Amino acid sequence: MDFLEQLTQINNAINDFVWVKIGLVLLIGTGILMTVLSRFFQVVHIKEWWTKTIGGMFSRHSKVRKNKEHGSVSQFQALCTALAATIGTGNIAGVASAICVGGPGAVFWMWIAAFFGMMTNFSENVLGIYFRRKNKEGEWSGGAMYYLRDGLGGYKHCKWLGRILAAAFSVFAVLASFGIGNMGQINKIVINLDTALLSNVDLGYAFGEVKWTSIIIGVVLMIVGALIILGGLKRIAAFAEKVIPFMACAYVVGCLIVFFANITQIGAIFGAIFKFAFGIEAVAGGITGVAVKEVITQGCKRGVFSNEAGLGSSVMVHSASNVREPVKQGMWGIFEVFADTIVVCTMTAVVVLSSGAINLETGAVAEGTNDATLVADSFGNVFGSFGSVFVSLSILLFAFTTVVGWSHYGSKSFEYLFGLKAAKGYKVFFVLMMISGAIMTSSLAWDISDTFNGLMMIPNLIGVISLSPLVVKITKNYVDRRIHKKNIEPMLSFDPEIQAEHAKDVEEEEKAEAELVNS
To answer: With contact defined as beta carbons under 8 Å apart, do 362 and 280 qualify?
Structure first.
């Protein structure tokens, strides 16, 4: 057995342990814990988080898209940048794969994972805002590494534990950023464009199995990536703010067209999702049943992979928001999971289940079905040859925005480990590595980075669970002040100076809101 085969086996064993053996239990368990401790905040206060997030987009008095503060982005830009990293190829090919392996019932568990994941993401963002601080350039820096170091590390006898876990999280995030956040996504773009749009273009091979078309696509993506990524968070956020709403809406509209073209099947589609949520029983004809464990694992895994709630990644950009209230940015975390999984992934599931490749009566997958091309084939049933083009362009945008979003996660983690100047060098190296993704012929780099992606969640969730009493306290403080109108001091930051500064801003904001209501 050669070195690469041994490395693959070791990585597969670690990946299975991290993602399946303990990962899903820890992720879903944390979501359930935070949901219960917050008294089902995502349900009880649905009006509050809806009006304070996407609902605020339609109010002329809302400040969700406004930002004049140096070193920060608007609340909406923070959301779009986070969605840029989370809405990726997993929302398309990943959902199709989950259904092919786990059956239609996997979609139900994807929803369950998202429901509880809302409060995990909420908790991460609350802690991210509460423990953030400004770096030497006046830019907000926050994330799991900071609430591990200053939050968990603030407990008695936990100083070094907090520091070790913070460093471990940052190392795993940096390593994951190059694979699942960069090379793996670029590789998916190249393969899809080459298959769907450039199949008739033959420029030959540059070397080995690497085509010239792959190199050209890689160079173009690297140049565009450099123009955005090297411009810093402000430029990344401005790009995300323009692209993400268009990208998500275009994809959802395409899915809705397929939805209405198959409107007569909708009852059967949702019936199959609930019917097979607890496994597919073997039926006459020799169809192999899918175990309940497999259905739950595939659904939950896809839900988590899709929205990244619990990994501690998106909190790094949410922490750069100009918001003062930790709970306000926490509510954007709830909406982020809702948009990514409940909306986009569900749309993909409807498209796949209306394709005819999945038997809605038995839950069986038609022989010869390829989960990698299933979504494109499903769109092709309605749009014809344009279907595969539409999916390829969707994957191009979804995957490229993931790269842009992850560049910020990696740079913030690198900044924590080695300082601000080193983080600038990281960005240059990150951009250069995009060409490696274009010419990559092995999936090993992707697989290893997927393991590091999973390893991120362990220290992060230790931080969230250990600091859950603080999350509850901050949330109760917000609810008492902003909903029940109690006159109490706000909880805005662990840093006394930031607390005092933000308290003045919040007081002025509350006065302005009161005057608006009275007028």
So the answer is: yes
